[in-house]
Specification:
The chain has five helices and nine strands; from the N terminus they run E-E-E-H-H-E-E-H-E-E-E-E-H-H. The chain has 210 residues and is of the alpha+beta class. The chain has a seven-stranded mixed β-sheet with strand order 1-6-7-8-5-4-9, with helices on one face. Helix 4 packs antiparallel against helix 5. The radius of gyration is 17 Å and the shape is globular.
Length: 210
């Protein structure tokens, strides 16, 4: 277990601030996650940690939480668009996000030279994956999504009608042994929803990699 307490001052979880003369207001009602207060708090804390950085341009929530659905174990899947190579020097932001949270597991790495990620499982069984993408990285935003903030209007040009990736098509063992905990946690979540076939098929994919 990793307990993070770095003494870093972070913004209020009800985020209401002005950035580059762009008003950013994010609250539980706008998120439409009143039925999932832990996830709502998680998303808002991510925004509070990232939004004030000059080289952070926009953030988008993806997946079931963006659709206003999800359940108690749905993860917060957040894409953060950055510039000037900030994705490679964002530890201050991640430390602010981690402040005060009890972290059971985390995984980090690069999707490419222009895209960095961190994935978290917390002791309360919430989870988050946060992807920092430089504006030069090609990435289309599929429905469902919810814009958390967009300082320079970059989100609209990335919208696509392509369907979002399906769990059934997720590759296995992408990050080797270090990523096993995350993949097994995904399987546990699917089983908890009664989707045993999805979990079993992914486990078979994993076994095929060993």
């Amino acid at each position: 277990m990793i307990s993070v307490d770095l003494g870093i001052e972070v913004a209020s979880l009800t985020l209401e601030c002005s950035v580059n003369q762009t008003e950013v207001i994010l609250n539980s009602k706008e998120l439409d996650l009143e039925h999932l207060p832990l996830q709502s708090k998680l998303v808002r804390s991510a925004c509070a940690a990232f939004v004030t950085e000059e080289d952070v341009v926009a953030a988008v929530l993806l997946g079931s939480l963006a659709a206003g659905g999800g359940d108690r174990v749905s993860d917060a899947d957040i894409i953060v668009f950055t510039k000037n190579g900030f994705h490679k020097s964002a530890e201050k932001c991640f430390s602010a996000f981690e402040y005060g949270k009890e972290i059971f597991y985390q995984l980090n790495g690069f999707h490419s030279d222009n895209a960095y990620f961190k994935k978290y499982i917390f002791n309360d069984l919430t989870s988050a994956e946060i992807h920092f993408l430089d504006l030069s990285e090609s990435f289309g935003i599929s429905k469902p999504f919810k814009v958390l903030f967009d300082k320079n209007g970059v989100v609209e040009q990335r919208l696509t009608d392509e369907p979002a990736p399906k769990h059934e098509n997720f590759p296995a063992y992408t990050y080797g042994d270090e990523g096993l905990t995350w993949e097994l946690f995904d399987c546990i979540k699917w089983i908890s929803r009664g989707n045993h076939e999805l979990a079993k098929n992914h486990l078979k994919k994993l076994v095929g990699q060993f």
